[in-house]
Specification:
It is built from 15 helices and 16 strands. The protein is α/β, with parallel strands linked by helices. The chain is elongated.
Amino acid sequence: MFFFIKPIALSWQYLVIAERGLWPKLSILAGYWLLVLSMAAIPVVVSPWALILSGMVASFGLTAMIKRLLKDATPLRDRWEKMVRLPYLQPLFKGEGVRLAKVTESWFDVPANGRTPFDFANYKEAIEGALGVDIGKIFYPNGNKTVIRFQYSPEPLSRNINRAEVEYRPGKILFGHGIAGPYYVNLADMKHTIVAGKSGSGKTKWMQNVVVQVLQAGAKVCLIDFKSVGFAKFGGQKNVAFVNDLVSANKALKAVYKMMIQRERLFLAAHRITPENLEEYAKITGRKLPRVFVIIDEALDLVVPAHSEDKKICEENLGLLGKIAQKGRAYGVVLCLGTQYANKSIFGPVFMANLEYRVAFKCDEALAIMLFAKATPARVEFIPGRFYFMDKDEQLIQLQAPYWSREDFEQMQEIGA
């Protein structure tokens, strides 16, 4: 009877950890054991050797069925079932949503039930805590909206990534590190970006990291920082224009807009088929034009007047930003706007439509909703440098920004070289 040992062990394992209820478990096991005993009993009338052969088949062949069932009975599924019973999560998980559709080592699927990925993002912190994993991305797989996919890692993201640990690549901008490794964006594909975050969240450090990389790639940068704290260290660097007052900022935006108009004329004169971007212009004319990044640490300081006499110049600044956002990328001009506050009168739907990249560090609920619609990354655990990134395809990704110390910047004497 030695051949019954393995089926008994597997049956007990299935009974203990499988995700199904008691009666479904028992019915499946009853069918399994009916097959096992049938194959063990039939050869008795033939010979002892047939009995041994049948036992081996039962032990090593039919056990594949129970192993297949056990394959789906992962600890993650078990923790998921327990989690969805929590009162504050029950409204989110109804019907089929109480069971995972599919689980792999790096992602799991949840039936959508008419929900969006961003409904789940509201509860992301609670889900991560209950499952004991780190969720880096929530999206519809392959456009299929019947399920929502959670990309996860059992190991949490590092809380501190030093500059020395970061691999920078030519022609790419490192946004941060996710559960799948470093996340890069091609310099040529960089979109207008809004960066949100409270003081101390890591917003300015992330923008500094972008400045260093675009300068190393040969781009020109216009930095506007009224506080003169985050970007003053770049003042005087090659290919950097740094301004810290309202009037100078207005002049800088006018100069950028004027350059953009000049490039528009160059494009029109380049060929009977007008180039659509810098790369096409370079192919047609053989002339390379540098990209220009306009990076503003607190955009509202530029467009919201602190005094009545500043109203006219602030309105002009807002108009210039709108024009650059609308047409700038085609001519190699990219905006990167930082903000701590949600202001829909400034960041209206038309303006926001042109800010295709959304980056959110720790921020208030109103600002999170403005950036991500129903998503509220403000509720995640506060970790300096931890942020959400939404790309042009509305993919929501969690990343950790590399940290630049004062010593790191002091060593960068020739950043643009």
